[in-house]
Amino acid sequence: MKAYRLNRLFHGRSGRCLDVAVDHGFFGEGSFLRGIEDMAAVVDTLAEANPDAIQLTVGQAALLQQRPGKDKPALVLRTDVANVYGTELPAELFSAVIADPVGQAVRLDAACVVVNLFDIPGQPGLRRACTENILALKPACDLAGMPLMVEPLVMRPNARAGGYQVDGDAERIVPLVRQAAELGADVVKADPTDDVTVYHRVVEAARVPVLVRGGGRVDDGELLLRTRAVLDQGARGIVYGRNIIQHDAPAAITRALLALLHDDVTADEAVAVLERERGA
Question: Is the pLDDT of residue 166 over 90?
């Protein structure tokens, strides 16, 4: 049954996935809301661009699922909420899973659920909480035939980085990805590495399909080049949020990324798609 849901997540021709993450409001961080103030309009725009999936929370999932017809992106349901994204970390960090996560995912007709695995320097308790979340989700997902996406998130020390800053060190990313796989992930949503040429190590450590996180906002050329590079090293897709929803032409960048994933165009050809779609 997991395979049936994964068939909805991954494109039938290319076997790849573009999942647009729009779950940022879940975390209570004001800076995350730029570009997604009107969620109904955001989901309408994205659905028209037709990515393979849209990543939403229990409070926003209906905006996608109530759309009529069968030709709409699959739902990836965010199951955990945390307080780790501010410029100053609170005295007590948490990562909590919603009640009956798999039951809610089934009732919402989700194709997959996603949960974090944080590695924040000096915060072992948070990593333990994430591990316990995954350990509880795994058997429930197996019982319901619900694919489990684990998001290993390697962050830099907050005092040095200031806020939500990922660490692109492959020596930290690879072990956390391997742990996600060992915990039973069906899909891994992993950080990009600073040295993009070593991303094959992340793919090899996961053994299951890897979707690459977008991280912070970057310029279009860099985004498309990096996407092409990780796909060429075996990544099965991408999960981009702010690089799409905060873009001046969200539908156009979505279609350019889809051309990379499903038509195997070059980065330069994807730029041409972007410019064409932006002017349409």
Answer: no
Residue 239 CA to residue 250 CA, distance in Å, equals 14
The structure tokens listed for 210 are 């890897």
Q: Which amino acid is at 132?
A: E
d(CA 165, CA 215): 8
Q: Which two tokens stand for residue 181?
A: 């796989």
Segment (H or E) for 232: helix 220-232
pLDDT of 209 strictly over 70: yes
Residue 96 in 3-state DSSP?
A: strand
Which bin fits 129, alpha (ψ -120 to 50), beta or left (φ > 0)? alpha
Candidates 263, 38, 258, 245; CA nearest to 277 is: 258
C-alpha span between 89 and 183 (Å, rounded): 27
Task: 216-219: list long-range contacts, CB under 8 Å, 24+ apart.
Answer: 216/165, 216/166, 216/242, 217/242, 217/243, 217/246, 218/243
CA contacts within 13 A on the Cβ side of 55 = 29
In whole angstroms, what is the distance from residue 253 CA to residue 243 CA?
A: 8
pTM for this predicted structure:
0.95
Can you give the residue ranges of every domain in the chain? 2-279
Mean pLDDT over 47-52 rounds to: 95
227 by DSSP, 3-state: which?
helix
pLDDT exceeds 70 at position 96: yes
Q: What is the CATH number of domain 2-279?
A: 3.20.20.70
> Could you tell me whether strands 80-82 and 95-97 are parallel, antiparallel, or unpaired per DSSP bridges?
antiparallel
> What span, in angstroms and rounded, lies between the C-alpha atoms of 129 and 131?
5
Look up residue 251 and give its two tokens: 């539908």
**Whole-number percent of the chain with pLDDT over 90:** 80
Which residues are paired to 56 by β-bridges?
A: 77
